[in-house]
Amino acid sequence: QIILDNRAGPKAPALASRRTQYASPGSREFLPQHTLFAAGGGTSASECVEGGVGSCWLIAAMASVAAHPGGIRRMLQRGGSAGAYVVTLHSPFDASLPPTKVEVEETLPACCIGAGACAAAYAKPATDDDAQAAAVLWPCLVEKACAASGLFAAGGQGYEGLNGGDPAKALQALTGVAPSVFRLAGEAPAAVDATLQSFLETGEHAICLASAIFDAHAQSDTISRDGVQQDHCYSLLASRPRSARHRSASSDLDRAEADKPPHEFQL
After folding, report:
1. What burial class does residue 234 get, using C-beta atoms within 10 Å of its C-beta: 0-12 exposed, 13-18 middle, 19+ buried?
2. Which residues touch 7 (CB under 8 Å, ≥6 apart)?
3. What is the DSSP letter of 22?
4. Strands (E), 144-251
5. What does the pLDDT look like over 5-25, one tens digit per residue?
6. Which of 16, 36, 38, 82 has the fewest CB within 10 Å, making it most exposed?
7. 199/205 Cα distance (integer angstroms)
8. pTM
9. CB proximity list for 44: less than 8 A, separation 6 or greater
10. Neighbours of 134 (CB within 10 A)
């Protein structure tokens, strides 16, 4: 078991950058209203919001697992002291290894946003865009445990070690189940549609998608025609039939529309 104590002194591993400070939820300056889980005790994908490090691969995996009842609650329990939680993680490289239990405090790296107020520096506590709602902390605690665990050896320990990664390894670390990986690049849209739809229809899969690099020379993130950011990870949550429209064979626009897969997917 890994015990993480932010007050362990200068010899403790530095999880966050020096531009942040640790803040305790519940103060007037930082998350005065907060809760571990939303009312009713469930979790949802909308509660997972990426913060100040490129951990989209982990946040997308968290969102995919959160969409399934009990998936997150099974891996997160209260610790032995007030404000402490134990997060159960698995090896992202070998699913046969025993799980690792990481104890984290609810204090979080925070940045000053003016007027004495602070905001979480990494995963953002969810409030459903309601300023009066209690902030949901579990995504911050799971991300913090991943940062402290050092399980993602390529990135090292700490939040900066989560900057870029593989959503398949994140799913395995969160669930303990070795994922299936499918390469969709070059596949016809209808074939991709059928593959994704087959997994969604079972209701039993946590699904992540990783987008390709569209423009390696771009100076900033490139957004495709359909709103997908390059070199980014998404959680696949649901689908719906694409709305039909009258098509004329003489229209290039209509021919392009006809070539699209039969479903629209919610990411």
Report:
1. buried
2. none
3. E
4. 207-210, 233-236, 238-241
5. 444 433 344 577 657 788 889
6. 82
7. 6
8. 0.85
9. 38, 66, 67
10. 19
